[in-house]
Design brief:
elongated, 9 helices, alpha+beta, 5-stranded mixed β-sheet
Length: about 240
């Protein structure tokens, strides 16, 4: 696992310099507290009084992606969104970065499911770098035992593409798919499945490899463990709240 480093600068408009300096201390403290942060520094540039030099290192692409997501949605991100900046990044794994990006989208959908009282699972279906379908668990609201996040995303994707076959597509889902969903993924001819946390009881990809045990006319790539801690925590917190 390669470390990811970023170096560069951010230039602040004169009229927002005071607000930036006020928010910067909090931004630095929050970033340094992130589990994947190895080092983080934002210092006034000696070359330009309106510039700040940025240098940061994270343990992995996944940790870097999590930081970017948090920073963008923070007060610092809102304040500096339109500021001029120039960064150079080294060590970034583009596949891992893409996996983390789409899994973060799936986690937002999982949160929507949890807020609706459904088991918090979210899924995003991507083809040619474009989201063609997305969904979250909704069997209770829909009175539909098949309305798992993966199925909802596949239905949207099939309608979007006007085809029940979806070769070359990638499904990102927060929890390892069950047997029903794996069957649907085979029928849809999905090219790859990326999931977050394993489902020890019902997971049908790695926990209980259904495809390896039964002959099928389609196989797809499987990547597990992407943002697994975040994905698993959504489930444990949901069921802990149910038991209270």
């Amino acid at each position: 696992m390669e470390k990811v480093s970023l170096k560069g600068y951010i230039r602040v408009p004169q009229h927002q310099l005071a607000a930036t300096e006020a928010e910067l201390e909090r931004h630095i403290a929050l970033t340094r507290a992130e589990a994947g942060c190895l080092s983080f520094a934002v210092t006034a540039s000696p070359r330009d009084p309106l510039c700040f030099d940025v240098a940061e290192t994270f343990v992995s692409t996944e940790a870097f992606a999590l930081h970017q997501q948090r920073a963008q949605s923070s007060a610092w991100g809102a304040l500096t969104r339109d500021f001029q900046r120039h960064y150079e990044v080294s060590g970034l794994d583009p596949v891992a970065a893409s996996n983390a990006q789409y899994m973060l989208q799936a986690l937002k959908l999982a949160d929507a499911a949890g807020a609706a009282g459904e088991v918090p699972v979210g899924a995003v279906l991507v083809r040619d770098d474009e989201v063609i379908g997305q969904g979250f668990n909704q069997p209770i609201a829909g009175c539909d035992p098949t309305a798992h996040a993966e199925i909802v995303a596949l239905r949207q994707g099939a309608q979007d593409q006007r085809n029940y076959r979806l070769p070359g597509s990638v499904l990102y889902v927060t929890i390892e798919p069950c047997l029903m969903c794996v069957g649907a993924l085979v029928h849809a001819r999905v090219g790859r499945v990326v999931f977050g946390a394993r489902e020890p009881k019902a997971g049908a990809l790695l926990s209980h490899s259904w495809i390896d045990q039964h002959p099928t006319n389609h196989r797809f790539e499987v990547t597990g463990g992407v943002l697994s801690d975040l994905c698993a925590s959504r489930m444990s917190e949901f069921f802990a709240a149910k038991r209270r």
